[in-house]
Amino acid sequence: MGLELYLDLLSQPCRAVYIFAKKNGIPFELRIVDLIKGQHLSDAFAQVNPLKKVPALKDGDFTLTESVAILLYLTRKYKVPDYWYPQDLQARARVDEYLAWQHTTLRRSCLRALWHKVMFPVFLGEPVSPQTLAATLAELDVNLQLLEDKFLQNKAFLTGPHISLADLVAITELMHPVGAGCQVFESRPKLATWRQRVEAAVGEDLFREAHEVILKAKDFPPADPTIKQKLMPWVLAMIR
Amino acid sequence: MLSILYQPVEWPPPPPAGALPVFANQECRLVGRRAMKLGPEHCREGHRPWRAQRCPPTTHHAGFFPGQHLSDAFAQVNPLKKVPALKDGDFTLTESVAILLYLTRKYKVPDYWYPQDLQARARVDEYLAWQHTTLRRSCLRALWHKVMFPVFLGEPVSPQTLAATLAELDVNLQLLEDKFLQNKAFLTGPHISLADLVAITELMHPVGAGCQVFESRPKLATWRQRVEAAVGEDLFREAHEVILKAKDFPPADPTIKQKLMPWVLAMIRFSLLLVMYAVPKEKQHCQGHSLACAELHMKLETRDWGKMER
């Protein structure tokens, strides 16, 4: 059995792993784990990842979780082009810096934006107060500003003149609020042109394919009560 | 020249009137400890490691005087106003994981810290990624809810909020044991690695708050002993001197409190979100916790910090 990637393209970190593997021609078996059907909560999937989260990687007997760890594993094992995770000490440190920073900042905001704006009211049928939504979108705004001011600045990509893992992780996060209908790029021309560069570097077809699911998030039919009950504890823990 | 900024920019710092040394945060302890293991020659003259200085105890410890990280001077170093921060000539770096990896590569430390082996390294990466939103969060909140809010900042925390925070810590400690440590000597294998260093410094936060982290968890307790032995007990004790006195910090004066509050709230990130949709048991738990946090947050946010009660 070759490399297996357990993914759901609804999830931001899964999109980053998917794009990276495809872009670099890494052969893998795609194992879809449908989050909104609760498949990640099944006993079968718990055999793969007891933490019941995606993405997960299986390479023979070796199982790995955490998208950043998976991306780094693929980078090293498949000897991808240097720009993804440069050998240069300082350039690499910049990528590490972004990958560490984003966990508790941009990722959190993007996840909450999607769930507060769309998934709770539309999919789960649970209203979210305007105050809550406003606070979430304000937090997103702060993190988008940090992304521009602290990381992107006047560079072509987040950590230098070339695309890297940092850009891939960031862009897949930002497509979450885009999928929710948030105006992420419209009022931020710097980020908009950065997005175009990232899409061009990744390949527009691959980018579109990876984001097909999230861009339809607003159209998910409401969950039936059984599914809703099953998913609730997970959702609450996830968006904390 | 390399400077690890977990110390005040001016050294020794002139203590502001009425100020007290703030504990170095978890990340600073681990970066500081790594830097010190490299040896004092790696720190710039005037920024010597603590033990090379003969300073009175109150200024001897790493860390900033209250709010110093919020100053304009420090913003020149790190516009995000967070510690730790590293300066290596013109190169400035933030985020403790990034700093640790930079030091690991630049100074060619022993392999076990971040093994060359593909799978062993992946295990370290996995832990370093996982801990951001789990153990680190719980440990930080445990300290602030149990000690820093009530004792240092004089703001009561409801028993419900504290209980929920400690329950969350408990869940993450169990994951640490079951998912990571299991039956190994160290988190990712037979040798200490960056993962163990990051984890142990996090756990000393709730220990400093008086939580019984190790007493009821023999597996974690013996792991801790192994980590301390591998790091060196003197160095370990030195790095944790400040946090272990967190309970004894005198209350902050009103000016300091006013200065720190927005930063504390952002760091602990009380959520205004009242998420309360679940099966009844979880609903009550989440509702209670979120409500309590949100109430505390709103109370703190709407206080007029210019007119402090005395």
UniProtKB/TrEMBL annotation, chain A:
Record EC number: 2.5.1.18
Residue ranges of every copy of the GST C-terminal domain listed in the record: 88-220
Top-level taxon: Eukaryota
Pfam families the UniProt entry points to: GST_C, GST_N
SUPFAM superfamilies (alphabetical): GST C-terminal domain-like, Thioredoxin-like
Principal place of residence: cytoplasm
Alphabetical keyword list: Cytoplasm, Transferase
PROSITE patterns: GST_CTER, GST_NTER
PANTHER family documented for this protein: GLUTATHIONE S-TRANSFERASE THETA-1, PTHR43917
Protein name (record): glutathione transferase
Classification lineage: Eukaryota, Metazoa, Chordata, Craniata, Vertebrata
TrEMBL record, chain B:
Recorded catalytic activity of this chain's protein: RX + glutathione = an S-substituted glutathione + a halide anion + H(+)
Major localization listed first in the record, in broad terms: cytoplasm
Location in the cell: Cytoplasm
GO biological process terms, semicolon-separated: glutathione metabolic process
GO molecular function: glutathione transferase activity
Top-level taxon of origin: Eukaryota
Keyword Mitochondrion part of the UniProt annotation: no
Keywords attached to this entry: Cytoplasm, Transferase
Residue intervals of the GST C-terminal domain: 117-249
E.C. designation(s): 2.5.1.18
Pfam family, one: GST_N
Stored SUPFAM superfamilies: GST C-terminal domain-like (SSF47616), Thioredoxin-like (SSF52833)
Keyword Cytoplasm: yes
A GO CC term assigned to this protein in UniProt: cytoplasm
Main enzyme class: transferase
Sequence ranges assigned to domain GST N-terminal in this UniProt record: 1-111
UniProt similarity note: Belongs to the GST superfamily. Theta family.
Complex and partners: Homodimer.
Name of the protein this chain belongs to: glutathione transferase
Organism: Macaca fascicularis (Crab-eating macaque)
